[in-house]
Each structure stands twice: as C-alpha cells, then as structure tokens.
Design goal:
By secondary structure, this protein is an alpha+beta fold. The protein contains 7 helices and 9 strands; from the N terminus they run βααββαβαβααβαβββ. Strands 1, 2, 3, 4, 5, 6, 7, 8 and 9 form a 9-stranded mixed beta sheet that branches. A hairpin with a 4-residue loop joins strand 8 and strand 9. Helix 2 packs across helix 3.
Length: about 240
C-alpha cells in the first residue's frame, strides 16, 4: 500500500472524509468532554504539526492521529491525570512560552475496514517520529483500552493487569503498544470527564435512567453517575498511561 503522511491542516479537502472516519464507532458521549472542548481550538491552532493523516495513493484516509507537546519530568508523580489534563498542561505551557520535552499521543485511529493490518502501530510510529523532529524526547499515551467497556465495574488497575495465556495483555490496544516496546506505567484514574443532562444520557444510553444513582451505559469504561436534582450525568473514565520512549 502506497501511503503518505500529511498534516491535517494541509489537507482541507480531506476534512469531511476525516470527520466521517474518526467519528465512526464511538459512543456519542465521548464527544461531550467540556475540558477537552475548551482546549481544542488552541490545540488545533498551535499543535497542527502533531495532527496527522495517513493517506493512500487514491487520497483515501487510512488512519489518523494527533498529540500535544508537554513538559514531564519522567516520574509517575508528575504524570497528568490523563487525557484532559494533558491538553490543559500543553496549552498552559504554550501560553507561558515554556519548552516542551514530551509528546502525549492523544489519539490514533484506523479506518474501520482496514483494522488488523498493523496500521495502528504504523500511525503510532509516525506520531512518535513527528514528536522527535519537534525535539520531544519522551513519548507517552493515555490509552483507552478497547475491551474495558465490557468490564465497567472492574477497576482499571485490575483490568490492565489481565493477560492472555501467552502473557500478553488481554486488551488488544494495550497489546499493540506493548508489541512496539511500550511500558505500562499506571492507571490514569480520571483521564476524561463527560457530562450531559439526564435527558442527554438517556438518549446516549438508549434506555431509561429513572432515578439518581450509578448506571452501566454501553461503551462506557466506568459507571455513569446520574443526579436528578442537578439534572446531570457525569462519566469519569480511566485510561492507562504507557511510555514509548
């Protein structure tokens, strides 16, 4: 397959295609993270060189991914809380004219009909290389495990320790990172926070949420907490921190 890499901003003709591909397969609630929404305009403006598309010879997107540059001292104590805090710290560092030293890979996705061909690992390598060219010596990622939604009541610290009989991680997305040489660091217990009204969550869940309490919602990595008095539902999702370099 003849593949080329482009910065997302350099190919506006592919933006519609990208929206269709990268929104497919995700639960609707994943797009309702208010912390990320507040940062995303500046992320796109300032870090466009780390927002990449992998395109075939027919100008069809096969994969894409993006990240942000951040400062991290290499210790577990200095890790961000997860995806949301990574964006906040990257934007704050840029506003302060600080010097980043770490690439946080925020997302990497392969077109649905091409999954299982090694393109996810290739996209991760391309992102890591872009970070290296930008002078970012470390590469980390808050991984959202593909199978965790099947076990929403299991703590992430326990889930990420589960392995197959061959010793590899049970989760395929964690396996992809491990095969590339990545090392699991720790659980990111409060990586993303998604919010909506009770009505929103009933629509996203596809069934009634008749009283305040915790509910298992399809696609969610943890229970959603519904509060009728406030007319809100909140989902705090854990991820897994891995280090590539």
């Amino acid at each position: 397959m003849d593949l080329r890499t482009f910065a997302f901003g350099d190919r506006p003709d592919l933006h519609g295609q990208a929206e269709d591909i990268f929104s497919a397969g995700w639960p609707e609630f994943i797009f309702h993270d208010p912390v990320a929404e507040r940062q995303m305009g500046r992320v796109r403006q300032w870090f466009g060189g780390l927002n990449l598309l992998l395109v075939d010879g027919e100008d069809q997107i096969v994969a894409g991914g993006w990240g942000v540059p951040m400062r991290w001292d290499g210790s577990l104590a200095d890790l961000p809380g997860g995806y949301d805090e990574s964006l906040v710290r990257a934007v704050a560092l840029r506003e302060a004219d600080g010097q980043a030293d770490t690439l946080v890979i925020a997302a990497a996705q392969v077109r649905g009909d091409l999954q299982g061909r090694g393109l996810a690992a290739e996209m991760l390598r391309i992102l890591a290389s872009a970070g290296e060219r930008a002078g970012l010596e470390r590469v980390i990622a808050p991984v959202r495990p593909a199978l965790k939604a099947r076990y929403p009541l299991t703590p992430m610290g326990q889930f990420m320790s589960w392995t197959r009989t061959d010793g590899a991680p049970l989760d395929p997305w964690l396996r992809t990172h491990q095969r590339m040489g990545a090392r699991v660091l720790c659980a990111a217990e409060r990586s993303m926070t998604m919010e909506g009204s009770v009505g929103d969550w009933q629509k996203w869940a596809g069934f009634a949420l008749p009283a305040s309490g915790s509910y298992v919602v399809p696609g969610a990595l943890a229970p959603v907490v519904i509060d009728y008095e406030r007319d809100e539902g909140v989902l705090v999702e854990p991820n897994v921190w891995v280090r590539h370099r």
